[in-house]
Fold each of these.
Amino acid sequence: MTLAFDASHQGESGGEPRFLEDPGTRVEDFRCAVDYLVTLDSVDEDRIGLVGICGGGGHAVNATMTDHRIKVLGTVVAADYGRLMREGAPGAALEAIGKQRTAEARGAEPVLTTYIPNTVEEREQAGITDVDIVDAVESYRTSRAQDDGAPNKLLFSGLATAFAFDAFHLAEHLLTQPLQIIVGDVPGGFGSYRDGFELFYRARSEKKDIFVVQGASHHDLYDKPDATAKALEKLESFFEENL
């Protein structure tokens, strides 16, 4: 049995305000998913595993550290969303976020920004050539993987908590479950390659493995068959062995 869900405040899931990107809520989503699974007679509560991808991979790590009902963890191009936010200009951003929250408290309309450029043309005009952004725009904003549930909208005033989030905080103490990490060897701005190796070295797990898919970029491991087939084969064998 596999359970996949949209994050709270996003897509087909409930939650107000809409388009909120709050790491704490994202982590809690995984715990709530386990809460649901353990109510089902068809689920063996001692054989629950978790797979997280991209930012969801970082959130999955954080959830697994403190929810030991999760017996095995697999990550695919996992990235620490907090680290990614901090690598921008956090001081200026937090000042702007604070001003916007003040404005909204006084009755102003919320401001929606975006995760990535809305079109290929917009990305090109901005002079952005990083492979992860190039592939993200192609993935999320073209027919490759565009979906009405992911409209590239982000609540600006809700971003403050992300700057203080460390997806791997205390992994060297609390992450003990078997761990399979998968990354591609084509690094980009999302930083999943280096995050994968940081997680591997920090995790306390006695049984852990990092698998590098040669020639694969971050988004190749979303939907390119050559790359995903290798990742799935590795995950399948690891889960079969450890669940």
Amino acid sequence: MIVYTHADCLDHITPPGHPEQVERLRAVERGLAGLRVERRDCPLGLEADILRCHPVAYLNRIRAAVPAQGWAQVDGDTFLSPGSLTAALRGVGGICAAVDHVMTAGGRAFVAARPPGHHAERETAMGFCLFGTVAIGAMRALDIHGLTRVAVLDFDVHHGNGTRDLLWDEPRVRFVSSHQMPLYPGSGHASERGAQGQITNLPLRAGSGGAEMRAAWQPVLDDLRRWQPELVLISAGFDAHRDDPLAGLAWPTRDFAWITRAICDLADETCGGRVVSSLEGGYDLEALADSVAAHVTELSRAND
């Protein structure tokens, strides 16, 4: 079990009181402490990988917006500091390195990087996100490794609107997102199906917990078994936790273990167990540490 991370991800510094803070990555490290994992540094992401999902004009706009000091605001809740672009490039490099690793050596990987990615649309930074990290990893799997069936599964409490935007016209990827509704960013209705009907949204009501989540996910996972993905990517947000301050779902930590185990079972049955997971949300630090520990424990156990 490989964990990709990098100290540069601590240099994405947000304003005081911002929920997507440096301490999140330190909480992730507490969750990983004592687990049997191999750590590797995230390389810097390549421009060619970013351009599979974002136009060069957008990349150049982000580059130009990076401040020499302090902060630059690129969206209502999305900020850049002097180290933010390098941190985001580590996330891109980490997901691509993880995809390359599991496609050549098998196994599983977890990318512990920030800022997160699943809200970044083709030409819009938003929701704390700059680049569509997991969508970029999916496109690398398709274009570099020649895959034709990649599953992208997102259990963050917020809808992965950026991933939806980036993969809307991509028939080789099935994107599934469970999320609280109504909630930011306001998308994720069941009727949003993608250009080829390859997108599935699983809206969940505020206050719902594990029973509702399992009832929503189980038939989708069964359908994916019939589709036979060649790789499974996870947008692993832990803000559906009942202690998270930004949302209102009621998942205890054990629910993150359940959904991870269910996804790993799918991968074991269809694609030799190949799973790459990437950190998205999770803003209560203790809950984040506990949930990451449960998630990575299940990823590691499935890989034994």
Amino acid sequence: MSYKKAFLALSCVFFMGCSSLNKNSSNLTRNEVQEEKHTHLKEKKYLSLKTGQQIDYKAEDIRSEVVEKKEINGTKFIEVYDPLEPLNRRIYYFNYYLDKYVLIPAVNTYEFIAPKFVQKGVSNFFSNLQEINTFVNSVLQLEGRKATITLVRFGINSTIGILGLFDVASALELPKTYEDFGLTLAKYGVGNGPYLVLPGFGPSNLRDTTGKAVGIMSVSEVNPYDQPIGFDVNNPGVTAMGAINARKENQNFRYYGTGSPFEYEYVRYFYTKYRDTLIDVNDVNGRGE
């Protein structure tokens, strides 16, 4: 019997090695086909940051490929491509302590000291700065109407709204939209890439991390209020205030706040679904549906 088992093992190895040349072979079982597909997906390049490079697959195809169902101790999850999971979990743990001892106390102090109208003004200010990224990426996505409205919003709020402290444009019923470079890359077929947890920023992926970096550099380079009035948005105080405001607007989330042993998997899944939803909404809007 031992030689039959050895022969069977060697046959499996041979068929798996040759599966790319003989995918339709009747000797392959269903499990072997699934194994071959899984191996192929891991070896596939999920991200191309050179937008000039031709991409022969669609973003929605990539998203469907990197997401698989997984069951852990009877609990079903969506497994996102996460080759750096051990490192990501350590950063997630680091973010917990950064949150607990730095960011949340800073937010609590800010909310205690600053009146509500001041907090609203600060929130409006940073929201207005985001219009820069929305405008640039709307242009890159050839969304002329969205780019025009965003530019008008920024002009009104930066002048009549006093550097964006007051959202006058919304009162004039000019709708606020959102775009970033990660969504632009997705529009042109760039996949998520590996899942990442960024120190201080939280969940992301390689594509969105690139988009976030481009967005930060864009606002820094434009520095819209420097020439007219000498207000530098790159001032360390403004940067710190931006971090506090960003954490304040997402303070309902707490690291390890769910009490679930699978919180990391849940956060990873919901972040991926959230970004996929933004991409899908942009696709629908882009088709005018």
Amino acid sequence: MTGVTGERVLRRLTPAQRRVRGWLDRIDWALAGTAILFLLAYAWPILDPSLGHEWRVVCSAVTFGAWLLFGADYATRLWVARDRRTYFRKHLLDLAIVVLPALRPLRLLRLVVLLRVLNRKAASTLRGRVPLYVSVSASALVVCAALAVLDAERHAAGSNIKTFGSALWWAVVTVTTVGYGDHFPVTLAGRFVAGGLMIGGVALIGVVTASFAAWFIDRVRDDEEAEAQAATQRDLAVLTDRIEELTAEVRALRASAARERDRAPA
């Protein structure tokens, strides 16, 4: 049914749109690689405050190039969409990734592209790999939040997050909703990152809970199916034995009837 629907959608596109759509399906991993390059270029100046001016220019060029690529990707996907209004409403986060580059900590929103690509690639084989997928997503979320809050808090007055270690510790206790309170953001940008991390932590807990519930239900269903199959096999075995007994009885009756006919006078 899905294949038929996809074919109908493709028929409604122009030849140029069909070619572009096929090309977009093949560049997902290139976008993921670009997102990783962006993360490296974003993290390097933060982790190394003494980085030279030339390398800072290179990192800025990489992040700017990633922004251009993601903007072009969004505009192209909007152009080839069958219903542009629906696509616009359902991809507001992708739009935010493109139009919010001026807010430095929020530039990490572009890394959502990486998770989106991984989600599209793993959608058909995600069952049974949820723990790995959640672990990678949680790790990426914690590291990105630590970088963003350190970038926002390092030089702020009254800040208690001055090193990547303290930022990473803050991100871990925040995403797990523990919140010791020994480190906390004091800037507006840092608090914005904290809010996003809290929401992400709650979402991850929900995913883990739902995944465990689905796994438990699948195990119970598998056990029930196995028990039902075993009961069916037992019933078939009993029925087969009974049929064999009835067959033997019928044969004995036929043999007895044949003997009676042979003894009967002509």
